[in-house]
Specification:
single chain; alpha+beta; Helix Hairpins; minor pseudopilin epsh fold; 2 domains; two-stranded antiparallel ribbon; 5 strands; globular
Amino acid sequence: MLGLTGAATIGGAGVVSAHDKGNNADSESDSDAVTNESGIPRYELPPLSYDYDALEPAINAEIMRLHHDKHHQGYVDGANSALNSLEEMRNNNDFSEIKHVKRDLSFNLSGHVLHTTFWENMSPDGGGKPSGYLAKAINKYFGSFENFKAEFNAAAKNVEGSGWGLLVYDHLADMPLVTQAEDHNDLAVQGATPLLVLDVWEHAYYLQYKNNRGKYVTNWWNVVDWDDVTQRYEAAQYAELSGDGAPSI
């Protein structure tokens, strides 16, 4: 599986997965990575680390099952399909459909990255407030946890159409920012690492909350896994995505 361990810039956003716990700790260098016949890595749906009903009452089991097994799987399949098309283009030296395929790759790969982070950002033992370095950073850059939460709520509730509310780490300014994403990839801040993400596509809440996105956003805070978010923040601080610290390839 193409995992999210380490730091990368994928689909317009850097990703740090701080997980060494559970089933999602595979990395791109794993010997059992999924590849196609040419040996090129392919993406795979990561398993949840909790049961479908574990996040109730914030998010019910029916939504979790459909969201993870159907919607997220669709983005994985879409990203792999785009990679297959690109490989075929290279083999045939025919790039007439490049615009369409690159658009599909950006959309689906960004969806895969954000959903993987979304699942790991939540826990049945979640809720409360962050602590440690993340808490200090939030107080420093937002004034207080309450100010941060108000800004994040406003960003998530006011996404136009489908999209995400995000807390990201900006590596240029070395600080956390609250941002929005429309769909999965539009409005993305290049080179920023997602720390905490909230899916506000209707498929994430409509079966339970109908058109009340605000209530869904409010209840979601009860399952936020601040340990995971804090690990991501601390890992992001050490990730060099530009300048002298950029890896040579």
